[in-house]
Amino acid sequence: MKILHFSDTHLGFNDLDIINENNINQREADFYDAFTQVVEQIKLIKPDYIIHTGDLFHRASPSNRAITYALEKFNEINALNIPFILIAGNHSTPRTNLSSPILKIFENFKNIYVSYNQEYKKIEFEDVVFHTLPHMNDENIACEQINSCEANIDENKRNIMMMHCSVGAWYLMSEFGEWVYPSNKEYIFEKMDYVALGHWHGFGKVGKYENVYYSGSVERTSLNDKRNSKGFIVANIKDTLTIDYIEINIRTIRQKEIDCSDLEASIQALDTSDCQNAIVEVKLTNLTPLGSIDIQNKQIKELFPTALSVSIKREFKKDITSSNIDNLEAISLEEYFLEHIKESCNDLEYERLKQKTQELFSKYEEVSYDTN
Ligand SMILES: [Mn+2]
Question: Which residues form the Calcineurin-like phosphoesterase domain (predicted)?
Fold first, then answer.
């Protein structure tokens, strides 16, 4: 039995304020592209079942575009005649009982089975039972629901558990309303053929369990997520379980460093060949306060003309204590300017210009004082 497991597709997510040629936020389009790649792979792999372990949409009330896109793709999946089972994650679960869960829109598709009611739901086929535990806002209710799950294990069929949670404290995402699976219930995992997890955005096996996996997200919802590998799982359940992780192509993120103690050499040595269309993060290191003023972000960005975006972080020299940075604030524009001409001319010329500068600056101060 071949089960294709993917998760955390976060349709509708957007970031970076970059609009593409179709007038769509480029990062939002990246998420649609990642989802499309999985659907194309589903058509090739033709698994027996498809499962999605939550956070289909980024928000509980997605945009029209995200909903329209999802309906188009779900139509394609539905036409394959492969059962597709989905559970709600924390992002697609309303926080109050007043709003209607978005996954309800898939109720009328013939081959799509959704679980979103904050309770255990058994989805059963001839040879397999999917024990679905969607995101639950209330931990006490969640415990009872886990008990129902255990009570429904069918010895004569394959048993697959589907959840959107952190197993232990290791897989928390620092988000609102995360559900931590109680560790005293982990023994249930051993009674399952496969435990499919969502919520954690990296692919991986959970602890000592050979049958418990996060498929990871299909794109990064935060630039703190530096993973360049995203994809999905094909779980083959025969006498033993085999797990194949299949990568998709996603927007790359690159981290570069420019050592400002020798700016020119460092720029010269910079390899930008892997930055095409990438999200680039540049760290300027060994900066001095005055040196930092001289380096403009624009100048650094121009080093990566083919990147999608460039963000710059400035890191000051380690031996410069905060008091030196305080000094920077204390340096007036006048002093800074004088320092600059001192570097560029001889002493005699400096004295002459110094006088002139001080004259001009005092005049400027008078003017700005008057306008106040
Ligand atoms: Mn997620």
Answer: 1-202
